[in-house]
């Protein structure tokens, strides 16, 4: 039962129930307690707006009255560009920036070309007890205290990315685990959460021609055993947390550039296979070794997301494809309850709160629908700003990062919910 204890430690030490300590919240699956506004706009239900220096698409995390983000600030001239990778703390009540700390100054070798929809600060940070963990992919990982002081840094695990970095880490027991799927020799690694020292590094054994991916791992409990499920190029695999040994693997062929974080329930993980032929899979997690021919329960092509992660609520899965097609699927069988085009291009992962699904388009349009087998539109909210980051929610407020700003969306006194 040691592995189960580690998984419980991961969740218990992260934050309190009303906090949002990591990408996709307390469980890493996009589910929040409480409630949040369903209507907002540039002048509606905005508690505050704070300009964020530099550029970054990491999603906000919120713990104990502070919001944490990462960003990248480009400097120098055309011949000698410099990049400052930074972490910020923002007061959740006022929107004031409390501190802004530089973590890394990447070398010219590390300043790789990024995709137009990416940034040098895309992985979402994690609040780990009394510290903040920030991750910049191939540029390194660091821990800070809540005053912005750097406790340790690790930039040993360099790899050559394609299109930049993207996936966030997950904390499991004493380890910070993340994927490093670059142009060649992809791997999954763990570093010590207290010291930053490398604990293990497990190569990905994949036959996919294109080796890069950007997914965030998910730690799950399977009959008392902790599994770290990590989609990568051509495969999704589960790893044990002590030494990083592979437990099982499922091959989905030439899928690459995998972004969505999996969700888990009913003894299955639900995930997308990436480009060029996206397919959505439900895979049982009780296997060992290669389970490609034995453990797939159902698949779906139309409406499979390339970037946004799914939502699981009871027996229903909710998906949003990059082209704006939303789908409600029976999680056990794969049968489709409804599919609706809600419009816009989508990269952000949706949120489930108070029986409602919150989608967010790249144009900053927030669409709220009822989490039900029958489609029901509740609200459509336009912010008129570009956004690729996902929602955070804490204490009844939504946090929304756009290209230039961070917003706290809070129900105004007497306003319509």
Describe the structure in your own words.
Helix content is 3%, strand content 42%. It has one helix at residues 2-14; strands at 31-32, 46-51, 61-63, 66-76, 81-91, 97-104, 126-128, 131-135, 141-145, 150-154, 170-172, 175-180, 187-192, 198-203, 218-222, 225-231, 235-239, 246-251, 263-265, 268-272, 280-284, 289-290, 296-300, 311-313, 316-320, 325-330, 336-341, 351-353, 356-360, 365-370, 377-382, 392-394, 397-401, 405-409. The strands form eight sheets. Strands 1-28-29-30-31 form a five-stranded mixed sheet, with no helix packed on it. Strands 15-16-17-18-22 form a five-stranded mixed sheet. Strands 2-34-33-32 form a four-stranded antiparallel sheet, with no helix packed on it. It starts with a helix and ends in an 8-residue tail after the last strand.
Count every beta strand, where a strand is a DSSP E run of 2 or more residues: 34
Oligomeric grouping of the chains: single chain
Using the 3D structure, state the CATH architecture: 7 Propeller
CATH topology description: Methylamine Dehydrogenase, Chain H
Backbone shape: globular
Summarize the biggest pleated sheet: 5 strands, mixed
**Helix count, DSSP H or I runs of 4 or more residues:** 1
CATH homologous superfamily classification = YVTN repeat-like/Quinoprotein amine dehydrogenase
Question: What percentage of the residues does DSSP assign to strands (E)?
Answer: 35-45%
How many independent structural domains?
A: 1
Rg is 20 Å
| Helical content class | under 10%
Helix/strand-derived category reads mainly beta
**CATH class (first level) name:** Mainly Beta
Distance between the termini: 45 Å
Instruction: Name the strands of the widest sheet in spatial order.
Output: 1-28-29-30-31
Summarize model confidence as the mean pLDDT.
92
